[in-house]
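does this look right to u?? uridine-5'-diphosphate version
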Amino acid sequence: MRILVTGGAGFIGSHLCERLIADGGEVICLDNFFTGRKANIEHLLTHPRFELVRHDVTEPILLEVDQIYNLACPASPVHYQYNPIKTVKTNVMGTINMLGLAKRVKARILQASTSEVYGDPIQHPQVESYWGNVNPIGLRSCYDEGKRVAETLMMDYHRQSSVDTRIVRIFNTYGTRMLENDGRVVSNFIVQALRGEKLTIYGDGTQTRSFCYVSDLVEGLVRLMNTEADDIHLPVNIGNPGEFTMKELAEKIGETLGRKLEIEYLPLPQDDPKQRQPNIERAKKLLGWEPKVPLAEGLKKTVEYFGKSVNADAASGNR
Ligand code: NAD
Ligand code: UDP
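got this back:
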């Protein structure tokens, strides 16, 4: 099986490449290194079934593959808002290019969508049938609407051109290999705590998120890609239903480190969703999938990971 992973040098993509190699796949990792790094996949570079291609998905490419995981897109608000037009292009032109490739070589394609398609949700927890509450003109729209168009494209290529498609709506995922400057809440809090800085809570910290450890997510992606069912082309939520406020998350990180952490309250960014929790009944029924790693365990692994890089930075005087 020849498998293309776009965004393969990123946080989730690198874990996915590793898993696919372990399963016996021949993996092509494609990345433009915007938020990805070679270090994430360095250990795979010499593997005979692994190949790295530096390429931007907004440009077409022809490769012979059987499956495509289309993960290419910055995921952190800080990074996807850095160049919002590029974020839209990556989601729209990138997805068209990957769907065109899938159509041409008759590959199955899985699109990484997001819980952000639900926007600031009025329905809670979020079920796949909910259409969402998204601001089309806000600072998050380049990502949210970009992903919504990517879903539309997947469905239209499936209906019009019979492309074998899968759509996964990923909820907040965390773990090893996130960037220190990723900007998302779990990595921010852990890096701040390890540096002895105050934890930056945006708003009053009562907004909620549901955090899935990366190994659980990767298991869900692989299962979805390799499952067949009549309604398999419709979106599937993958996430951990354990829901926490940002204040609770800060406390959990304090418990992991065994000390009380100081908090600094900063303004809430525009359109920041107030609550988010996946309904995962569809994934359970369709894929026999549910998350296994509780937050405390996942945080411990992530703290250990960042502990090494933050200590190394401190030793070299590099931040
Ligand atoms: P990430 O930023 O670590 O990884 C994204 C990867 O895509 C990076 O390696 C980056 O260099 C690459 N990339 C970006 N634009 C590209 C382009 N135009 N061409 C080629 N490569 C490009 O983020 P992640 O958390 O690993 O997210 C992976 C995917 O999962 C994204 O599509 C994201 O939208 C989706 N997702 C992630 C989460 C999460 O919580 N981590 C939640 C929902 C959806
Ligand atoms: N957040 C925070 N402090 C930070 C980074 C994020 O309080 O240093 C908040 C953010 O406002 C949001 C939540 O944490 O309410 C999750 O943010 P993240 O960027 O991780 O994910 P997303 O908002 O895309 O779900």
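Residues 76-77, 172, 184-185, 188, 200-202, 207, 209, 246, 269, 272 surround uridine-5'-diphosphate (ligand 2) (CB under 6 Å). idk if thats expected tbh
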